Amino acid sequence: MRLTDEELKDVLLEALQNKILPHLGTLGFKPATKPKPGVFPRKYARRSTDRIDLLNFQFDKYGRASFTINFRSLENVSDIAKFRPGWGHALYGNCYFRASDSRFGAKWFSLGLLGRSFLRDRILSNLILRVRDRLDDVSRFLSGGPPSPFLREGGLWDGKMVDETWPAPPKRRLSR
Question: Whole-structure pTM over 0.85, yes or no?
Answer without folding.
Answer: no
